[in-house]
Amino acid sequence: MVLVVLGVVALTYYTTVVLVYGPAALDDRDNNNNAAGAWVVLAIYHVLIVMTLWSYFACVLTDPGRVPPGWAPPPEDEEDERVRTSNSEKRRRFCRKCTAWKPERSHHCSVCGRCVLKMDHHCVWVASCVGAYNYKHFILFLLYTFAACVFDAVALASTFVSYWADVHDGSHREKTDEEKMTMAAVFVTFFVDVAFAASLLGFIVMHANLNFSNMTTIEMYEKKKARSTLPWRYDRGKRKNFTEVFGTTIALWFLPLHSAHQMRRLLDVSRLSGGSYPRMVEDGLDPIAPVSVAGDPPRGSRGDDGEELAACGLCVGSRGGGVVVGKKSGGRSRDA
């Protein structure tokens, strides 16, 4: 599927840049007002494509969230367990496939062969799971792809419409083979853009609602299956729910990057239920501090490193649950 995504990007780039707006921008005829407009279109198009590819590869290459080795849940509280209706909310959960405890909100990925923190779903388009660490990148990928498709369709619309207007009135001259090839490429690209934009819009609306509710796709279906009418226990309000995923640094909201401060907050997901693991201090978390909730600073943080970037956004992973630069664990999966 990675090749399919790159193929679609290559198709739009070839049509928009090489066939249509590139030649228009390089047209050096005097008093050519179209050249300036073509340069503007090319500039906006390249920004959107760069952000789309950056977000996409950040999502593909970032580890979605590995359960820290040695993580153990807190002592069992029978009364508290009775009010937790869905499987994701239970505090003491044992993964028989990993033969280890798994935190609340984590799920086992059967093809990846491991549990993923705050697992949302397995996405075939990124050939990996979407979880705590790369959910922001996934949402940005959806948004930038939608924006790029809409912009490209609008940019090609004038060429598309003018060609069919000439065909309809029958007064056009005979087209050369090069012009016919260009219009065939414009025709295919235009409809690919429209189809992708229409399909992405539904996903964007769904994940926006999930993000503002602090709920994953798996948890949404679990809650429906349990027919629970209780308030969602992780919902802390739209602002805090949003900043749990995107962080508190506004400048980074639009980039597939996490600050070191935000990475510790995301890692704190692994102890929402009060559990612990051996490397907590090394990961910058205070083992005896209260568990942080959506939008709050991570435990043990002084809150003064919000601008420090954890990594480039392409290869942030977890080693033993820590916030380090590393390779993501490969594989494709479905939640089990």
Automatic annotation (TrEMBL):
It comes from the Eukaryota. Belongs to the DHHC palmitoyltransferase family. Its EC number is 2.3.1.225. It is a multi-pass membrane protein. GO terms for cellular component: membrane. It is found in: Membrane. This is S-acyltransferase. PANTHER family: PALMITOYLTRANSFERASE ZDHHC16. GO terms for molecular function: protein-cysteine S-palmitoyltransferase activity.
